[in-house]
Specification:
8 helices
Length: 173
């Protein structure tokens, strides 16, 4: 799993799962909320990227694998933000764009290319997608905190406030 796997979550620290896919324009819009939540809570909550590639986006599955490689190389969130900020380019260029972004961020682009070919992260992506389906995720972005699922694919209005309300309660603030 990515840099904040369930096994590494310190006892009592709230977890916010962000079900996302890198070819999703709504996920790009949600980046502002994700950045604000990361700024507000820092390491007091675990913010985890969870993969839910949608069939309608043909490069989303490769994007999820590339994100996992970025997390493995220590630049997961910067990579996710860079790709989401340019979803139209991913639409047009496909997998070569994923490697291009890695190169731009100073990551090992050759390793990205190899990871996309050998499929080393497929099981993580498949497991996330299966778990998402099992808990009722139907679109992206979807947030899950303290067992509450908040669907941002329909509307993102008020979602950050709701996440903050739950996180504040869990943190006792």
């Amino acid at each position: 799993m990515n840099d904040a796997s369930a096994a590494s979550v310190p006892q009592g620290r709230p977890v916010l799962d962000v079900w996302c896919e890198l070819q999703c324009p709504d996920c790009r819009t949600a980046l502002d909320d994700v950045r604000a939540l990361r700024a507000r809570y820092g390491d007091r909550i675990d913010l985890r990227l969870r993969h839910f590639p949608l069939e309608k986006h043909k490069h989303a599955f490769a994007g999820a694998q590339a994100a996992e490689e970025a997390f493995e190389q220590g630049q997961g969130w910067p990579y996710v933000e860079a790709v989401l900020g340019r979803v139209e380019e991913l639409d047009r260029k496909g997998e070569p764009f994923l490697v291009e972004v890695a190169r731009e961020l100073g990551l090992d682009a050759e390793e990205f290319d190899t990871a996309l070919i050998d499929g080393r992260h497929i099981l993580i992506v498949d497991a996330d997608q299966a778990e998402g389906k099992a808990i009722g995720v139907t679109g992206t972005p979807t947030y899950v905190i303290d067992g509450e699922r908040l669907d941002g694919g329909k509307s993102q209005d008020g979602l950050r406030e709701r996440v903050e309300e739950i996180a504040d309660r869990l943190l006792g603030t």
